[in-house]
Amino acid sequence: MSDFCCDSIVDIASLQGRQRRVLAWVFGINVATFAVMVAGSVLSGSSALLSGALDNLGDALTYALSLAVVGASARAKARVAMVKGFLILGAALAVAGQIAWRLTDLEAPVASTMSAAAIVNLIANAVCLKLLTPYRDGDVNMSSSWECSRNDVIEGVAVIGAAAAVWLFASPWPDLLVALVLLAIFLRSASRVLRDAWRELAPAGV
């Protein structure tokens, strides 16, 4: 029995160590991608890219929070997941504000710059999703991190499609339409993360 307990402790410690390493990697990737996306958004004038940049910033903060609570209690992880949900919601509100502002100045983004930044973003997000996928069915902390990363991959594909459509039609509308789709995805994801976190907290009381 003593050996079994020791083995269990070692296994848990090993898992937590792997989780910390993965979260550290995806944190660094998201910080770097945020910088690329902001530069691309400024140079191209793309709302979809700015939406992605804000999402990457929110994700970087999310991964930092996740890293801080690896090995913590289930209640602590649920509280952090609740913060993540509000960060995603904040990104959604920022996207909504950007869309409203762009509607007053309808100018097509620079498609080539938008495409280059979007491709870098998609590659980076795909790497993060691959790193997090083995932990997607773990605790609420890791599953919410995976949720954020999955959103990023969807966002990356959508922004590349928007860039292609902007180039093809020489119009700002594909960029704005994709930004609207991303807004809907962010709101749905925020709702899911907040709901899961509440379920963890509700039995014991928040």
Tell me the quaternary state: single chain
Query: Which sequence of SSEs, written as H and E, runs from N to C?
Result: HHHHHH
Structural class: mainly alpha
Shape: elongated
Reported CATH architecture:
Up-down Bundle
How big is the Rg?
19 Å
Portion in beta strands: under 5%
Q: Low-confidence stretches at least 5 residues in length (pLDDT < 50)?
A: 2-10
Number of domains: 1
Query: Main beta sheet: strand number and arrangement?
Result: none
Structure at a glance:
By secondary structure, this protein is mainly alpha-helical. 85% of the residues lie in helices and 0% in strands.
Descriptive notes:
By secondary structure, the protein is an all-alpha fold. It has one domain: Alpha-lytic protease prodomain-like (Up-down Bundle), CATH 1.20.1510. The protein is 85% helix and 0% strand. It is built from six helices and no strands. The radius of gyration is 19 Å and the shape is elongated. Mean pLDDT is 77; it is low at 2-10.
Spell out the key features of this protein.
single chain; 206 residues; mainly alpha; Alpha-lytic protease prodomain-like; disordered N terminus
